[in-house]
Structure formats: structure tokens, C-alpha cells
Design goal:
The protein has 6 helices and no strands. By secondary structure, it is mostly helical.
């Protein structure tokens, strides 16, 4: 993870926008992606980071997460990215287990889209 992405997480945490356990969870997930060879930078994973932190924070606060009208389109797009879908489901499972936050299908699909984009980036060596 590059310094800019770490700063994004720090600002969310210090600004009180996310719970510390959410920031820790997302940091651990990003670290795992990086250790798996993904290029995890502000440019490649900034939106993924913010979206996941805010979705988990909303869930833990008991706030509803809206279903997206494009869910069917997203699901069709994801048919070509089974690894990203599987990884998104694993992340959602860990979020439920570790944080008690049950991501709805639309959020899992959105996460999978972010992961598919990340996987399309050149890997670091």
C-alpha cells in the first residue's frame, strides 16, 4: 500500500468518519491484496478503499444500504470476472464474521467490480 492510500485511511479514521475496527479491517484486506501481488495504490484502490469503509460503517451504524438499479447490469459484467466475484464474497464473509456487518448483494457486486478493476492493473514485481 502506498503512502497516499495509507493517508486516505488515516484521514477517515482521524476524522471520525469510520470506526477504528473498520479502518483496521480494510487495511488488512488491502494488505492481503498487495501481498497477493496486486498493485494497491491510491490510484488503483482509492475508490475501493473509501467505498468499502463507508459501506461497512453504514452497516455497523444500522443505516440502510440501497440496492442499485443497475444490479443486473453489474452482475452481467461480473460474469467475466469470477475471481473478483469469489474474492468479494470472501471479503464479505470476513466482514460479517469479524465486524458483524452483512454486506448486501449489491455491495458485494460493487466490491467485485472494484476488485476486477484492481486485478486488471499491472501487477507489481
Amino acid at each position: 500500500m502506498d503512502d497516499q492510500l495509507a493517508l486516505r485511511i488515516q484521514l477517515f479514521r482521524e476524522g471520525g468518519q469510520v470506526r477504528p475496527e473498520v479502518a483496521d479491517f480494510v487495511t488488512a484486506e488491502l494488505t492481503a491484496l498487495a501481498e497477493g501481488g496486486s498493485t494497491v495504490t491510491e490510484d488503483s484502490a482509492g475508490m475501493l478503499t473509501s467505498h468499502l469503509m463507508m459501506a461497512l460503517t453504514r452497516l455497523l451504524a444500522g443505516e440502510p444500504i440501497e440496492q442499485f438499479l443497475t444490479d443486473e447490469q453489474v452482475a452481467a459484467e461480473l460474469a467475466g470476472h469470477p475471481d473478483a466475484v469469489a474474492r468479494a464474497h470472501r471479503v464479505a464473509g470476513r466482514a460479517c464474521e469479524e465486524l458483524g456487518a452483512q454486506l448486501p448483494d449489491s455491495e458485494i457486486n460493487f466490491l467485485a467490480m472494484h476488485l476486477a478493476v484492481l486485478a486488471s492493473q499491472p501487477t507489481r514485481h
